[in-house]
Amino acid sequence: MVHDLNKFPYPFQHQEFDEVHVKDTLFLLDNPVLVMEEIFRICKVNGKVVVVQPYFRSVYNHIDPWIKSFGTAHSFAFYDPDDPICRRYDYSKARFRTANIIFDYGLGKSWLFRRLIIWLANRYPRKYEIYFSHLFPLDTITHYLIRLKV
Question: How far apart are the C-alpha atoms of 75 and 79, rounded to whole Å?
Fold first, then answer.
């Protein structure tokens, strides 16, 4: 199927999919909040959503003129009812639980120090972002989300 992801609604039924992958796409779209609300609509309750996007500290982000947004460890906090950010700012009715956050997944072999930074970032993503990401920037961030019932 070919569809412009900036046009809503998407041509799918409510709760049609068990799993939705948004790889290297969300950051190119006009309104990521509307996209996530549409993913919420088409994904089944307890369905998996995987979002891969450039990490905001990556030096490569500014090479591509089409990139409109970047990912952070808190990118989906607005959708997670367990997160204080979601409870404070009610931007969307879509709800996803953040199951995991992984940095630089699948970028291949790298030198030992970089692998150590990736391991630490993946173990403590929010602490890495706050305290170390400006010193040791990584390139991609992947969010593993679970679609919740509202």
Answer: 9
Phi-psi region of 80 (alpha: psi -120 to 50; beta: other; left: phi over 0): beta
Residue 77: phi and psi, rounded to 5, are: -65, -30
CA distance 25 to 52: 8
One-letter amino acid of 148:
L
Domains in the chain with CATH codes:
17-147 (3.40.50.150)
Phi, psi of 38 (to 5 degrees): -70, -40
Q: What's the whole-number average pLDDT of the chain?
A: 93
Strands (E) in the chain, as ranges, are: 17-23, 43-54, 96-103, 140-147
Q: What is the pTM of this model?
A: 0.92
Lookup: tokens for 61: 């982000």
Give 5-57 pLDDT, tens digit per residue: 999 999 999 999 999 999 999 999 999 999 999 999 999 999 999 999 999 99
